[in-house]
What we know:
alpha+beta, Alpha-Beta Plaits, Nuclear Transport Factor 2, Chain: A, 3 domains, 52% helix, 22% strand
Amino acid sequence: MSEQKPKQKRRLAAIMFSDIVGFSSEMGADEQRAVRILATHNKIFDMAIRQHDGTVIKQMGDGVLVEFGSAVDSVACAMDIQDRVRKHNGKCDPGLRFEVRIGVHLGDVLVVGNDIIGDGVNVASRIEPMATPGGICISQDVYNQVHNKMEITTVALGPQQFKNIERQIEIYKVLAQAAEAQTGAAVAAVVPTAGPAGSAAVSPADIPVARPASKARASDAAPHSSRRTLWTGIAIGVGAVFALLIVGGVMKDGQRRKAEQQAVASAIDEAKRLADEGKLDDARAKLEGVIAEVRPKTPGIDEAQKAIELIEQRQSIDQSIEKARSLADEAKFDEARTLVQGTLRTIDADTDGVEDLRAALTRIDYAETITNRYRDYVRHLYNRDWDECLKVIDPDSRATIGGPGMRFRLGALRLAAEVLKVDLEKVRVKNFRFADDMRTATTRAEIYANGVWNDTNNDDHWRFKGGQWYLVIK
């Protein structure tokens, strides 16, 4: 008796493939940033996969192969992942944003230890590159299982011929989640409300009643006629009741849709007012609230979602500007510039906030110039080089106080520094506040005395004149 080979284990599975767009280039440009992006990616995937009962078969760098027991779970997980990534990108620093492509297929796989191989896996790996950044593509087999079980919007991309796959595969692009059944379409399919153009509405009474093909006997005519009349009447009555219920439901649905449309329009107007007042968090909450309350296909909801994206972008810009201001206070001017320039590269030239970012770059340059000028002033003061100190002081201040009076003040400052044991080689400038015309500014200096940093508790005033910043002495 010949020895039998162990039977190979096979199973039907929904397979999801994904990868991070441009990750190899990111790794080459900035390895540490790429590692942070990958860590965020893994966290998002882990949460979504667990929630939708998936199993990670293997991860190859930024690529992930996941198996599901259900096509519905696989597509729901893919949509959840893209939603989580979108929300992350709206809140994080521009340099840490990323996008993923996802492909899903339903097919037979061969189980090899903890891995799966076979035609089903190969097809899924070929579908994934067809997705746009931030997008999802599914095969015909997946579409057949999910299109009537979950609310999604798809576009057929037609049959595709993939490398090393003999047959063509019909591919669908998943556009967005639709969260409402089309009641109106169902009504039209069950109870037509009108015939061809110009014809009258169809009622149950217009439906012909089937009659026997053979000629009835005279003695049977009356009873049969009576029964036909009875059943026809019942049919008409029941049909009329159902028709009234359906029409009533359609009318109520129309009223609800109108109310939802008005609610969305009102929320958009209110959000615009709040945004104009600088209350971006309140504006965003207003829009997110109305989106959660109405049905996904309500007219105006796309505008509301676009408004949220613009608000998130503006918040990201404001965060970059605020962070750059903090870096400038720490004299980290190069880091501040890199942050603002990076944000500028990620947005369009006509985006709201671009001018604010450019103004922030100018403020960073001016802050660095003022810091260097103040340090020069203190160094010359330390060396008792009064003439060099005077070059930093505003010409109008010098003219008002006069040369002798200015030198007397500088000498008094130098003497006070000695008494207080101030280390004049250590000085910090912070709290840069520029006027709207960028022609005047105030700063606050910190000095190092007796082994600790001390705030001078006095604002220093600066004036921009003839292409240079000067310290104003009153």
